[in-house]
Amino acid sequence: MKALMIIQQIFNISIFTCIGIINTHAQIVDGGNGHAIVLDSFGQVWTIGRNDYGQLGDGSLINSNIPLKVKYLKSIQAISRGYDHSIALDSFGRLYLWGRNNYGQLGCSDVYDHSTPQKLQNHDHFIAIEGGHWHTLGLKDDGLVWAWGHNYFGELGNGNREHSQWPVNVLQMEDFKISPLNHVKKIATVGYHGLALKEDGSVWAWGPNDFNELGHLCKEIQTYANRIESLPTIVDIAVGWHHSVALDNSGNIWVWGSDPAFQFKEETKKMYDHPVPFTGLPKMKKIACGSWHSLAIDEQDRLWTWGKNHFGMLGTGDTISSSTPVLVPGLKDIVEIGGGCFQSIAIDKAKQIFTFGDNPSGQLGNGTNRRCLSPISLDIIDASPIQHLTSATTNESKYQLKKIQHSFQNSALFILLLGSLILNFYFIFKTWKVQISLSRR
């Protein structure tokens, strides 16, 4: 009898352990203009904050200062934010978009805003996505880049400045020849200009260049992607509103365009007219940008930030802007980062989300609308980073592996529950027999 009771306790403990495993989440994070978006390990998307154009995807226009699960999205593998819209990419390369649609950035047949996800028609095989101000970029598994939405500043890179609600190919100009931008492995945009990182480590740029964000002095709008000269082999790229950032294969950060620390609206007192490296820093391994600031993770998994800090998005406990990276105190083991307009988000190895910066729409997700100058913990969703997409085959394999894992966990939970019920019924039956036996005496 004692042995059976011990087995029952083990079953009950295992049930709660299994439930804990099933409810943990692994995440990617990103931030827009007052809203944030989070992806968990089960392919579920969560949104927080501003919702006046339906960018939270919950069917309403009501802001939320706690995370909301976006319904009807399954097996999502990547997410991105636009200024006022949101994007999700599933494991089969299909795109879903929602929020503001004033210039066709959702890729719909209409130009109305949508408060629930809309599937992009007639296009799939995407492996990466990026949301800009009023436009969207998508990278397909053949290495070609597509763009749609606003194009007055040449954001679509298709050789003209006409808006398009349908995806068009981003084109490149090389040796005075025009062809589709190809062999791309990563894309980046936030405001109006775009960057593409090719497989050979070269960086290509298009769009406006008022702040030298394209890496040269010519101020004309560039409607074709052109290679940025003077850069070494690059492994990662990121962009802000008027600045660009790159990470080379030696762990060095390169910057060009506006210095956000000196930016005030559409004016700045300091610009980098060509790519320049930061010196005196540890080796970095990951970069990201908000609209007016940047973030980086070093080889010791520490978080560094720089740029404008008037709302505390550098996480240094003050509002002092910085032209060079500063170490964020109190954070360690950081593995994933994302930036919003005036917000920063980070995830550590212990699966914890940290968020800091401005919070008028509740985008920090802590249940309040108070600004935070230092990182605070977001306890609502557990977190752990997952790899970004590299190919459609890899995505499908990950999805199938995840399905097998979840099926195994659910089967294990069912077996444990069944075993526990059988044991409990056994003990109830034994107790009932003993009571009948005693009553007969």
Structure commentary:
The chain is of the alpha+beta class and 441 residues long. The protein has a single domain (29-416), classed as Methylamine Dehydrogenase, Chain H, CATH 2.130.10. The protein has helices spanning 2-22, 392-440, and strands at 28-31, 35-39, 45-49, 64-69, 76-81, 85-90, 95-99, 114-119, 126-131, 135-140, 145-149, 164-169, 171-174, 177-180, 184-189, 194-198, 203-207, 222-227, 234-239, 243-248, 253-258, 263-264, 267-268, 271-277, 284-289, 293-298, 303-307, 322-327, 334-339, 343-348, 353-357, 372-378. The strands form nine sheets. It has a four-stranded antiparallel beta sheet, with no helix packed on it. A four-stranded antiparallel beta sheet has the order 5-6-7-8, with no helix packed on it. Strands 9-10-11-12 form a four-stranded antiparallel beta sheet, with no helix packed on it. Helix 1 (2-22) packs antiparallel against helix 2 (392-440). The longest helix is centred in the last third of the chain and has 49 residues, at 392-440. The model is unreliable at 4-26 and 381-406 (pLDDT under 50).
